[in-house]
Amino acid sequence: MRLLRVALVLSVIALPGCNGKNPAGPSQPAASAISGLAINGAGAVLTGVSASYTATATFSDGTSRAVTPAWISSNPAVGSADGDGRLDGRSHGSTTLTATYQGRSVSKTVQVVNNYAGTWNGSFVIRACSDSGDLTNHDGGWCLAGFGRVGTVVSGMTMRLAQSGTNLTEITGTLGSFEEALTGVVTADGRLTLGGTFREWDWDHEIVEAIWQIHAWDSNLAGPDVMTGRWSEHLISFFRIGTADIDNEFVTITRTSRVASASTRR
C-alpha cells in the first residue's frame, strides 16, 4: 500500500501538459496600426510671434488620440520649430511644418507674415507738393510757404494698426486723431499698403473744412519694430478753396507697443 501511494505522488509531480508542454495563457490582442496623422494649428503666424501645433493619430481600430511626434520646419529662417510643436515666426515667407510619428509623416504649409500690428510713432518729410485754387494764391501758397512746403519734417505722427484675417494679411487702424479708419493689406512680398479718407473738422462751427485722401501707401519693415516707406495725400480744402497733392516719406517711425492680433482659423 505504501508503494502505491508513493507511485501516485510521483506520477502527479511528473504529469506533463498536453504533448509534454505547459498550457499557454490567453492570447494578447494585436496593437492597432496607425492609419492616419493630422496636424492641428494655424495656417499663418506673424513675425515675432509663436504658435503651437499638435498632432492627432488615427488607428486601424477606428480610434484616434493626440500623440507626440517629432517636428521639423523646412525653412527655419522663416519659421523655426521645436520638439513641442511650437513654431516661431522669424521672417516673411512660407515654411512646411512636418510631424512624424511611428514611421508616418504629415505636413502643413504655414505662412509667416510680416507683423505690423501695434502703435507706431514717428516723423515724415514732404518730398513733393502741388496745389491749386486758393491754396496756391493765399499766403504765398500751400506748397511754397505753407504746410506743404517741400523738405518740411512733420513730427508727432501716430498710427494704431491691428492685423487679422484667415491669413493675417488684413489691416485696419487709425491715423492720428482722425475718426475714420485706415484699411489695407500685407502683400505677398510682405509690404504694407494702406488707404483711407479722413475729414478735418472745424469743431467751433461744426463743419468739415478739409478732406484728406491717403493713397499709394508703400511701406515695409526694416527691423522688428522699424518701418520705412512712402505714401501720397490728396487734400481737398473747403476753407481755402483748392486742392493739393503731397508725397511723403518716413524719416523715422518705430513701434512703441504691440497689440495682439486676431487668431487665425485653420
Structure, briefly:
The protein is mainly β and 266 residues long. The chain has helices at 2-13, 134-137; strands at 34-40, 44-46, 50-52, 54-59, 64-67, 70-73, 79-81, 86-89, 93-101, 104-113, 118-131, 153-164, 170-175, 182-186, 192-202, 207-223, 226-237, 242-257. The protein has an eight-stranded antiparallel barrel with strand order 11-12-13-14-15-16-17-18. The protein has a four-stranded mixed beta sheet with strand order 2-10-9-6, with no helix packed on it.
Would you give an account of this structure?
The chain has 2 domains: 80 residues, Immunoglobulin-like, CATH 2.60.40; 140 residues, Porin (Beta Barrel), CATH 2.40.160. The chain is elongated and about 90 Å long. The chain is built from 2 helices and 18 strands. With 266 residues, it is mostly beta strands. Helices cover 6% and strands 55% of the residues. The strands form 4 sheets. An 8-stranded antiparallel beta barrel has the order 11-12-13-14-15-16-17-18. It starts with a helix and ends in a 9-residue tail after the last strand. The N terminus and C terminus are likely disordered. A hairpin with a 2-residue loop joins β16 and β17.
How many strands, which pairing sense, and closed or not: the largest β-sheet? 8 strands, antiparallel, barrel
Annotated CATH architecture of the largest domain: Beta Barrel
Mean pLDDT: 88
- Count of DSSP strands: 18
User: What is the 3D shape?
Assistant: elongated
